[in-house]
Design a protein that fits this description.
single chain; 183 residues; 2 domains; three-stranded antiparallel β-sheet; two-stranded parallel ribbon; globular
């Protein structure tokens, strides 16, 4: 969930509706996709109401491309997103966690500890969890594919919480029993 959108760049906003996650709102800058929110328009009121925030043609095209690709994901027609991402304003650790998370293949899951090891920080599993809790690009950067070492679902900050995380993993063909990933 995005608590507050802080963005000085002009952004274009689009919405994908009619999918299992409800209204998914997308914002893109000229650089790339900047935010994906399961919270509907409430996260983006400032962007929409700021009349000085006139989006460029490129940001509009990126927002619409992201909307199409996210809908294709929900329709099970897309497994890999092909979008430029705008992560330049994020702290280095968070950016590295998110970039590595983007490489987790569709239909698979890894643990927080495995992700920490992949970024050369093997003792940073909790910090990895904290970085993922503030993922501005849910679905596109698939933080739902990261689980606890015992396969259990720990936190998911999108609307619906763990139920949404489980639904996304099941959409991708993962087996879940109770609240645990079956490996």
């Amino acid at each position: 969930m995005i608590n507050q959108v802080n963005q000085d760049k002009p952004m274009a906003v689009a919405m994908v509706d009619g999918n299992p996650a409800g209204a998914v709102v997308i914002a893109a800058s000229d650089v790339g996709l900047a935010y994906v929110s399961f919270q509907g328009l409430q996260d983006f009121k400032a962007l929409i109401l700021d009349k000085a925030n006139i989006p460029s043609t490129r940001s509009l095209e990126l927002a619409h491309a992201a909307g199409r690709q996210i809908q294709e994901y929900f329709d099970r027609k897309r497994k890999i997103f092909d979008l430029p991402l705008d992560l330049e304003d994020l702290p280095d650790f968070r950016r590295r966690v998110l970039q590595e998370t983007a490489h987790i293949p569709y239909g698979t899951a890894i643990t927080y500890g495995e992700l920490a090891a992949r970024i050369q920080q093997p003792k940073a599993a909790r910090a990895v969890g904290g970085a993922l809790a503030r993922n501005p690009l849910a679905i596109v950067i698939p933080c739902h594919r990261v689980v606890a070492s015992d396969g259990s679902m720990h936190g998911f900050s999108a609307a619906g919480g763990i139920a949404t995380k489980i639904a996304l993993l099941q959409l991708e063909g993962c087996r879940i029993q109770g609240d645990r990933l079956v490996r």
